[in-house]
Amino acid sequence: MKALEERILKEGRAIGNDILKVDSFINHQLDIRFMEEIGKEMARLFSDVKVDKILTVEASGIAIASVAARYFDYPPVVFAKKSQPNTMNDDCYTAEAKSFTKGNMCVYRVSKTYIKKGENILIVDDFMASGEASVALAGIVESGGANVAGITSVIEKEYQGGSERLRKMGYLVRNLAVIKKIDSGVITFAEK
Amino acid sequence: MKALEERILKEGRAIGNDILKVDSFINHQLDIRFMEEIGKEMARLFSDVKVDKILTVEASGIAIASVAARYFDYPPVVFAKKSQPNTMNDDCYTAEAKSFTKGNMCVYRVSKTYIKKGENILIVDDFMASGEASVALAGIVESGGANVAGITSVIEKEYQGGSERLRKMGYLVRNLAVIKKIDSGVITFAEK
């Protein structure tokens, strides 16, 4: 998505070789008009796929999934809640994931009520790095007997291996901006 | 908002006298089409007020603020991040608030970059209980020299005193569904 790549180059702050901050329009302050363009593009990328529900994870994924839902004709949006490993998990599907930015383990929880057998669920997130979050969400989908319709993120850091890992697991992965490398603050996107 | 009251009565689960769970359409699973109606109503309630920015707090407020923004003609949406009291807070405005549902103290943080002097900022959240969260967000707005344009929530639990407290502080408070009491699971709305 050209406009997204341009915006990342203009406003993103690359820190070292791993961290990309997009706080001005995706992660802290949200540009909703721009998110609508992101949502439209996600819907276009998955126009050949049946999507009964969108699953994301708090907090940053919520805005993207909520704004995108309109372009998928309003499927329910569910967000996984993050909690410490010792939190009560009655009647929830859970999966552990390591936070890339914070380094700690956390548990993703989704009430069993909101994952139904046979549903086709699209996983949406802001970033795809090592794929930890997506693997956890996919595990929750499958625990409930539902299908992973696809996995999409706004920004993929390809060099961290997430999309390769998820494709090897058999998932359909389509991301909007794919970063090949960040080298001392310089961002290079993958060729289309 | 009549449709909201009806939906709360139909799908909300009142637990004891204090807790209301609306996980099926606001807090865990999100009905985006319905949230658009909520957003429209918020914009109608504040049509006489200048809104330059919307401020909310992760996680549940994000969906409401993101969907509502369209009806306010797309002001930037900023969400405060919650962290433990010992987290680094460089270059952030911070305020402490006690979580009603979790009981612990947490710190709300907003980067100084995203609150500008003189801006008129509308505070949006899912619930208003004792008003703790709104007081913290209003404090952040004012720390940055901006003005609180108003405070709105989807569901107010009036008997917990939040709106009275905030109005005494001089804020304009307009909520969508106002609950007068919850008594052994029975919800009573305030008269209009």
Describe this structure in words.
The structure is a homodimer of 192-residue chains. With 192 residues, chain A is α/β, with parallel strands linked by helices. Chain A has one domain: Rossmann fold (3-Layer(aba) Sandwich). Chain A is 30% helix and 34% strand. Chain A contains six helices and eleven strands. The first copy, chain A, has an eight-stranded mixed beta sheet with strand order 6-7-5-4-8-9-10-11, sandwiched between helices. Chain A has a two-stranded antiparallel ribbon with strand order 1-2. In chain A, a hairpin with a 2-residue loop joins strand 10 and strand 11. The radius of gyration of chain A is 16 Å and the shape is globular. At the A-B interface, strand 3, helix 3, helix 4 and strand 5 of A face strand 3, helix 3, helix 4 and strand 5 of B.
Counted by DSSP, the helix tally of chain A is 6
In CATH, the topology of chain A is named Rossmann fold
**Average pLDDT rating of chain A:** 94
The radius of gyration of chain A is 16 Å
Judging by the overall fold, what is the CATH architecture of chain A?
3-Layer(aba) Sandwich
Largest interface (CB within 8 Å) is between: A-B, 29 and 29 residues
Beta strand count of chain A: 11
Strand percent estimate of chain A: 25-35%
CATH class of chain A: Alpha Beta
Q: Name the poorly predicted regions of chain A.
A: none
Multimeric organization: homodimer
Order of helices and strands of chain A: HEEHEHEHEEEEHEHEE
Structural class call of chain A reads: alpha/beta
| Biggest beta-sheet profile of chain A | 8 strands, mixed
What is the domain total for the residues of chain A? 1
Terminal CA distance of chain A reads 10 Å
